What we know:
- The chain folds into 2 domains: 5-131, Response regulator (Rossmann fold); 155-386, PPM-type phosphatase domain (Phosphatase 2c, domain 1, 4-Layer Sandwich), CATH 3.60.40.10.
- The chain is 39% helix and 25% strand.
- It contains 10 helices and 18 strands.
- Strands 7, 8, 9, 10, 13 and 14 form a 6-stranded antiparallel sheet that branches. It has a 5-stranded parallel sheet with strand order 2-1-3-4-5, sandwiched between helices.
- The longest helix has 42 residues, at 113-154.
- The protein is elongated.
- The N and C termini lie far apart (78 Å).
Amino acid sequence: MSTRLHILLVEDSDSDADLLIRFLKRENIDFSHSRVWDKPSFITALHENNLDLIIADHSLPQFSGMEAFRIAKSENIRIPFILVTGTVTENVLIEYAKEGVDDYILKDNLLRLPSAIDHVLSKKKIEDLSKNLEIVLKDLNDSINYAKRIQNAMLPDTALLHDCFPESFIFFRPKDVLSGDFYWFKNDGNTFFAAAADCTGHGIPGALMSMIGIEKLNSSVLTTKLPSEILKQLNKNIVFALSQSNQYEHSFDGMDIALCSINIDTLILHFAGANRPLWIVRNNTIEEIKGTKQAIGGISTMLTPNFESIEIQLYKGDTFYMFSDGFADQFGGESDKKLLSKNFKQLLLSMQGLLMSEQEIHLLQFIETWKATTDQIDDILVIGIRIV
């Protein structure tokens, strides 16, 4: 005990009080003290003194240590409390435990007083730390939830997708409150843009990257309408935004993304991907349109990589999907292994008789059954669009 303690003695006997004081001094405990022996004085001392410890006699003529403890407890004043008693029975011990008394010592065993003081002060310190951690955790959760509102506000209104393509869905399940995956839409005249992106990490770091990605996509689409050129511009903007062209100090953060544009009149789709594919279901088979093996930003030293542009003529009945890797990478099943892309493809093929809104529900039911008690390991995003 390196700091000076202010101790309140609840004791009517001068000799017993002197005995406690002498013993505390003999044990080299640095303290100051005040003393009370009735209820009014005790209540006054509780509120007027900055107390570190209360040592109270269990039995007083008109007042008791237990009554003093109950008063402090009822007024929500948390001060370490030690009861001193001449004898102790099983019933008394049960009473102490139920009430929450910190510790007790017998009058004929004052040798235990230093360890009892250490015990109750340590207990109080742990309680204070726990309380402070709860406050910090609440503030952190409040901040994260507020950040979620900001992130949601930056995501496009899903009505943009449903207005153009009534048969469509967005299956979006962040691993944490905040997400490193994001979806992006833009309706520009007769051209509709859609993207599914997977940023480095998840949670707070991923969310920061996602908001940068959304802002840079919004600016990139102002300069060009071809998905491959949008990705090229997006990569350049991310590299500069994160100082990744600086050889001395830069981050390795970036994103994988699948981006397409659809001419609503001609149903011609242009696709470009950065490490992400587009899957088209036609005649109950899946055609995989692979993206360029190049991330947006990240560790690449290429400032202006070229992303392959692919043109596809869509037809009524075609269904296509863009997604992050979260669904296929989820562990689960009897062997607790990854689902894998081949099984994800089979799942999508098995759902083709369902409406797109029903497919979204089916995906949710499947992934919950698949992972069972296994934790979700990553953000999950799947966008599905059917041409009708």
